[in-house]
């Protein structure tokens, strides 16, 4: 990913999306904790490292998952993907376990 392409968000499973931003990769739950908006279509702010839900504008910090704006709701589940050459499956499993 280069700075010219900007942040990328892609669906990796029904429950997870991968956010690639500023040279980092973060797995997040696919549905906003507020009203289940699809974060695949959310806006990612590269300067603040936040993602905003397209449904009701709940905004979450991509480091902590903390809600920073929008309607009150639970935090977003986030897991940084380690840049060790792995496919991210270990991180995806850890995040998916939290969904149960």
Brief characterization of the structure:
The chain is mostly beta strands. The protein has a single domain (8-98), classed as Rieske [2Fe-2S] iron-sulphur domain (Rieske Iron-sulfur Protein, 3-layer Sandwich), CATH 2.102.10.10.
Please tag this protein with its features:
1 helix; mainly beta; four-stranded antiparallel sheet; 31% strand; 8 strands; globular; single chain; Rieske Iron-sulfur Protein; 100 residues
Task: Walk me through what this model shows.
The protein is mainly beta and 100 residues long. The chain has one domain (8-98): Rieske [2Fe-2S] iron-sulphur domain (Rieske Iron-sulfur Protein, 3-layer Sandwich). It is built from 1 helix and 8 strands. Strand 2 (16-21) and strand 3 form a beta hairpin.
Describe the secondary structure blueprint for this structure:
Elements: E1 8-11, E2 16-21, E3 24-29, E4 43-45, E5 50-52, E6 59-61, E7 67-69, E8 78-80, H1 89-98
Antiparallel strand pairs: 1-2, 2-3, 3-8, 4-5, 5-6, 6-7
């Amino acid at each position: 990913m280069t700075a010219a392409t900007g942040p990328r968000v892609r669906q990796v499973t029904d429950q997870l999306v991968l956010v690639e931003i500023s040279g980092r990769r973060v797995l997040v739950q696919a549905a906003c904790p507020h009203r289940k908006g699809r974060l695949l279509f959310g806006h990612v702010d590269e300067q603040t490292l936040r993602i905003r839900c397209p449904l009701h504008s709940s905004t979450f910090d991509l480091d902590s998952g903390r809600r920073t704006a929008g309607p009150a709701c639970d935090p977003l589940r986030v897991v940084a993907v380690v840049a060790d050459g792995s496919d991210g499956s270990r991180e995806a499993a850890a995040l998916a376990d939290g969904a149960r």
